[in-house]
Amino acid sequence: MDSSSDSRLARQFAFLTELDKLKDILRQSLVAATRRNENSAEHSWHLAMMSLVLLEHVHAENLDRLRILKMLLIHDIVEIDAGDTFLYDALGNASKAEKEKAAATRIFSLLPPDQGGELREIWDEFEAETTPEAKCAQCLDRLQAVLQNFNTDGAAWRRNRVSKQQVVERNRKIGAMMPEIWAVVERRLDEAEQAGWFATEAATA
User: Fold this and answer.
1) Residue 203 lies inside a defined structural domain of this protein
2) How far apart are CA 44 and CA 59, in angstroms?
3) Domain residues for 23?
4) Given this model, what pLDDT does residue 4 score?
């Protein structure tokens, strides 16, 4: 192996080693079986599996399924630096974009430029949410957290005093891409409200 190959592999190894830190980034969502906090690496894996299982329900033609899969595996890598920001945390979300862009610049630059550039482009596409693939990936990202709450008796919602209105407003985009799934979610949200999982007045705006 020549020196250029050595250097390329060293950068690839450095990036992959950095990714291990994602396993220590804890989310508000809980794992259903043990009720411990889910980490961001687990979240990304779960999303990748959701894309394999649920894309048949997406109302869009000619989706690039591999690109969606890449987005879901890549989208939260920036949380190694920026941490996870809870969807309903108004203050945290105000500075989220700036922190995550800085993280993307640092982390993706660990890779050789061709690979780092490709992953950054896919991450930027996910964040911009203008392509059908990005919209689909964003919807799956929102759906996963909703399902985790359904499976843990609304644990994250109850702990953070989230209202049903907040959940509907922040997740209604699912309905545009996956109307059948959103119809089921809405029914489950009504059941969750009856079970007392939501705050009458939300703690965050």
Assistant:
1) no
2) 23
3) 3-194
4) 78
